[in-house]
Q: What sequence folds into this?
């Protein structure tokens, strides 16, 4: 299994962000085994504001350097992101750890 990090867009309560990935207030970062590493504040996130600042996909990629997988509910710029070699994975899970576990189970090598 690739050891690259996995980022999940999350809300202020720690659940999976319910809108565009680039607008997530925070990103939870996990290692390639699904272990939580850190939370990153998204300076491009909406944080529930009425005026959303939809994130530029390349600013988000730069912010999440070292993350080879991005997980969220809506990844509208997913095709552009995939061109950089990053995997995008849409989830319906509410719990970020379950979202990572689901991704890892669906993408196990072997």
A:
């Amino acid at each position: 299994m690739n050891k690259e990090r996995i980022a999940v867009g999350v809300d202020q309560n720690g659940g999976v962000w319910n809108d565009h990935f680039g607008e997530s207030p925070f990103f939870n970062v996990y290692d390639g085994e699904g272990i939580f590493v850190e939370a990153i504040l998204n300076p491009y996130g909406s944080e529930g504001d009425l005026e959303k600042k939809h994130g530029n996909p390349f600013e988000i990629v730069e912010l999440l350097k070292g993350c080879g997988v991005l997980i969220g509910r809506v990844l509208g710029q997913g095709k552009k992101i995939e061109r950089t070699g990053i995997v995008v994975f849409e989830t319906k899970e509410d719990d970020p750890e379950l979202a990572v576990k689901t991704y890892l189970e669906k993408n196990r090598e072997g």
Q: What stands out?
A: The beta strands are 5-10, 26-30, 36-41, 67-72, 87-90. The chain has a mean pLDDT of 88.
